[in-house]
Here is the input.
Amino acid sequence: MNNESSPIFVVYDDREFTSEEVKPFVGDRRYSDIIFKRKKLKAYFYDYLSDIKKDHVFHIHNRHEVGELRKQIEDVGDPCGILIVSSKAGIISNGNFEQLLARLPFAEDSFCDRAFKPMISFFKDSHELIEHWEKFQSKPLHSWEEPQTGMERLLSVQPLDLGKSRDFLSFMTGSTETRHFNQVEIDSFYYTKKSSDVRKMEAEYRFYDLVPEPMRPWLIQPFDYKRDGDTASYKMMRYYLADTALQWVHGAFSNASFEAFIDRLLFFIHQRPRKETNKSDVATVAKSLYLDKVESRAKQLFDLPDGKKVNELVSIADPNLELNIQIERYKALYKKYEKEFHLNYLSAGHGDPCFSNILYDQQRYILKAIDPKGALTEEDVWTHPYYDLCKISHSVMGNYDFINNGLYEVTLDDENGLILKIKANQHLAKKELFLDKLKELGYDWKIIRLGEASLFLSMLPLHIDHPNKVMAFILIAKQILDEVERA
Here is the structure.
């Protein structure tokens, strides 16, 4: 791409930490370390630079590295081009940025994406920047108050400013990967979900009207349901709120802010409308959710070639990890505590209140649950009272969102046994707080965690496209069973 006689340097300016507007979402960190769709933002940027010589790429964090950059520029001797991209730049991957990089050697003028505080700036002649080097060394271009004059306006790439909450949330809206049959369209006002799973779309749409009225304030009302051939869609108002998984994996919660959040979430769960019924009916629902689903999903996994391979791998490392052994352990524990699941009522259930389906504003205490399981009839609304709690627990206690965001590693210990490492703060104090809150509300943590283990076991075939994730889920399920057995 670059002409040897006139190289182009690419500078990723990563000197700033998250703004006060964005800290509530991802904590205090460099923008490059924000996780988006299972990768850090800096990894995406380096993917863009795959065709550029590595010695022409500079990732600067401090004044010293800015000084090193100048030495490299001066060593070239002849004027060279410099592209500076702020790590605050939210670049939408639509091919335009790659085209921009490819065309840099042919650029006739210097340019920037905006006159004030540009996210992307290109200096055709390095001397244009060196004239202001002392100022550049003091602070990034994207923080200068003075406008960039004498530069053309870049129109093909218009990055979002990730230091602004609205831009940040607009950029991160796709951070949780949709399933293969889903399509999501987002604009400034509406969130439109479309899918070939027509039955599910209708169930999600009808859920809001079918649930008891006291539950509705916690949900986002869908509207404009449409059926078009083999697909269906509906809309929702767009709320500029971050999902809790984003905040959780980035360590954005303090102990105090997490307590405020979990109080609100557990209030929603604990106060859901109930329907009195006999224990035998509740036992049937419990068996379907906590036992039958685990067994059917295990069969589904073993029917998949990759599922068999994963089971063989974990069994070689530790014969006790073999999935059938874990399932038998789980079934024995379920039988031991089965009567604890036999309540005399059912609850109106969201069905999947994991952290990625909970939107939350720490400053205003706004909480909205999205993507419910759905319902086609009033009877479909009712579920086992513990199920939603188990879903919450697998985010808090089971590290589900860390696994889902790639913040883990399955490795071998000194005895060649498999171990799971979480590459982030695991929030131990917040986990204890969660267990205390469960106890205050009258729940037995062993029962909730046992139900949580069923979730990890039943998820295995759904994530077989990431075999390491499946191994991680098996390890988590075993850990939960160990804890319940020891209790």
In short: Residues 175-181 have pLDDT under 50 and may be disordered. The domain at 243-486 is CATH 3.90.1200 (Aminoglycoside 3'-phosphotransferase; Chain: A, domain 2).
